Each structure stands twice: as C-alpha cells, then as structure tokens.
Amino acid sequence: MDRFAFDVVTIPPLRERKEDIALLAAHFARAMSRELGRATFAGFAASAAAALEAYAWPGNVRELRNVVERAVALNDKTLLDGSDLWLTTLDQSSSGQHAALVYHPQSLEDIEKRHIKETLKHTDWNKSRAAEILGIERSTLDRKIKSFGLHRES
Question: Domain for residue 9, yes or no?
Fold first, then answer.
C-alpha cells in the first residue's frame, strides 16, 4: 500500500463559482489598499459588482486579483465602480474559452493611436492618469494626441 496516497481535489473555474467573486474581489481590494497605505476599501458600486459577476474570468482567480489590484492602484476611491475595472473585451464562447483570434493587418501607428484613444476614453480624458497607465510622460502623450489628431468626443 502506498504510504502517501493523495486524493485529487478538483476546484471548478471561477466562472462556475459566481458566489465567490465578490468575496475574493473584496479581499484583494482590501489587501491592495493596505499595501498602498490608503484609506480602507469600502466596496464595489452596483455597476462594478455586476461587471465582475458577468465576466467569464478566463484567467480565473489570478485574473480577478490583477483586475482588482489595478483598479485599486489607479484610483484613490474607497468605492470602485464599473468604469474602474479593466476587463478584456475578447469574445468568449459559452464554454468560457477564448474565441479564435483573427489577424487583421494594422500598422503599429494605427494600433498605438487606437490604444491611446481608448485609454483616454477610459480615463475620461484625464491626461495625467492616461500617461501613467501608458507608461509615458504627460508631454509625450500631448505630442502623440496632437500628431494623431485625437479630440475628446462630446
């Protein structure tokens, strides 16, 4: 008889444990708030809670942690809302697997322009915050906005 017999423990993916999402997200947010020395985390607004629960979590708990930690790190709010969460917009099949990605030829300039435009939109055109997210200086962002002819949409 094997002296060290182990049972296999199978844990279903996060998308099948919707009841765990809010608890895990709150835990990660409080931990990140403490790590950053910020005010105590108060919770998620209804829009954020709905977005977290509706998302398929292809990256499982690790992706949830990353999304929540990024939201806490980039905001000084104690109550996070849906616009603070960066969730992928890739189409996902009902099984939760990523749909096949289709290659679309694009120049790096077009990709950069679109990415900057989406980052500005996400930050409601807060250029300092957008530059921080993009990892560039504010003056560089201003120059790129001008060269790409980007304008805030009303």
Answer: no
